[in-house]
Specification:
Blueprint (H helix, E strand, L loop, with lengths): L25 H14 L2 H12 L4 E3 L3 H5 L3 H13 L3 E6 L2 E6 L1 H11 L2
Length: 115
């Protein structure tokens, strides 16, 4: 599984109770929707899988445009959306940003969707 958790403004107490066991609170539904919306894009799913498969489970942003056959601004947009949702963590190393999956948030999605 390739899910991870970053420190974000999102309160993880709300996310994510199993959908089949409880009625979601408004806050829990909103938090889960943020995660699912961030993942509901083929390019973002590919980014998550590329990071998960990379050595040390991290990748430099400089490598992604060629791997995704997308422009740097497009890749940056998708990484920004994943970062805002707390699904990836960003670390600046000199000129380049490195990304890794935030496992707790990914596990929250898996837990919510587990039947």
């Amino acid at each position: 599984m390739f899910l991870a958790m970053a420190t974000t403004e999102t309160d993880t107490r709300f996310c994510c109770q199993p959908l089949m066991e409880n009625v979601l609170t408004e806050d829990a539904a909103a938090d889960l929707a943020v995660l699912l919306k961030a993942l509901a894009d083929p390019v973002r799913l590919r980014i998550m899988s590329i990071i998960a498969a990379a050595p040390n489970s991290e990748i430099c942003t400089c490598d992604l445009p060629d791997l995704l056959d997308r422009s740097q601004p497009t890749v940056s947009h998708h990484l920004s959306q994943l970062t805002k949702a707390g699904l990836v963590e960003r670390e600046q190393r000199g000129k380049w940003a490195w990304f890794r999956i935030a496992p707790e948030r990914l596990e929250a999605v898996a837990k919510a969707l587990h039947a």
